[in-house]
Amino acid sequence: MKTARIPASSQAFPIGKIVCLARNYAEHARELGNETPAAPVLFMKPASSVIGDGETVRIPGYSQECHYEVELAVLIGRECRAAGADRALEYVAGYGAAIDMTLRDVQNGLKAKGLPWEIAKGFDTACPLSDFVPASEVVDPHNLRLLLSVNGEKRQDGCSSDMINRVPEIVAYISRIFTLYPGDVILTGTPAGVGRVVAGDVMEAEIEGVARLTVYVQ
Ligand code: MG
After folding, report:
1. Ligand 1 center to residue 95 CA distance, Å?
2. What pLDDT is attached to residue 34?
C-alpha cells in the first residue's frame, strides 16, 4: 500500500484517491492551446500510480511522448464533505511536491475522441510524490516557487500565486463532489514549461522551502 508521510510529525496516511486539476495556471493552459476553464477541470490518478523520491517513471510502450508537470500536492488530514472555502484549509494536513506524468500523445488522442484520460495520466509510476511538510509550517501556500529541471536544466519555474483556483476554493469545490478522507491527495495544476522526457533522463522537482523530489525515467 502506498503511504503519504509527514516525517516531521511521524504521521503516515494510506493514500486514497488523488484528485488532480487541469489548466489551473493560465499560461500553461495557453501553451497547450486550451481555454482557461470557468470551473475547475478535474481528473483522478489511482494510488497505484504513486512512486517516491529516488524511484523511476516507466514510460508505457503505448506512448512516444511522456511529459512532466510539477505541481503543489495537498494532503488531506480530516474527513471533508462540502466544506466552505473559509474553513477548507482546516482539512489540509500537509504540502508536498508531485510530478503529474502525462502521456501527451495518448491524452491528445483521447481528448480528440472525447474519451477519459486515465490511461494517459494514471498508469503505474505516473505520480511521483514527495513526503509532506505539516501545513502549519507553510506560511502561505500561494507564495511558493515551483521548479522542475531535467538533467540539471531548468524547464519549469512558476509560482503558486498564479493559480486560477486557490487551495481553499479547490478543497471546497472537490469536497462538494467527492467526500475527501485522510490520505487523499490533491494535485493543484502545473505552471507553464511542460515538456518531454525520455529514458535516461533525471527529473528534479522542487516546491521551494517545502519539498524536493528526484525521479529517474526509463
Ligand atoms: Mg497536471
Report:
1. 16
2. 87
- Domains of the chain (ranges plus CATH)? 3-217 (3.90.850.10)
Q: Which three cell numbers stand for residue 198?
A: 525520455
pLDDT of residue 35: 85
183's torsion region: left (phi>0), alpha (psi -120 to 50) or beta?
left
Which pLDDT score, from 0 to 100, does residue 38 have?
84
What is the 42 CA–ligand 1 centroid distance (Å)? 10
| Mean pLDDT, range 82-86, rounded to an integer | 97
Buried b (16+ CB within 10 A) or exposed e, 67-94: bbbbbbbbbbbeebeebeeeebbebbbb
Note the pLDDT tens digit of each residue in 145-176.
999 999 999 999 999 999 999 999 999 999 99
Give the pLDDT of residue 36.
84
Distance, CA 43 to ligand 1 centroid (Å)? 9
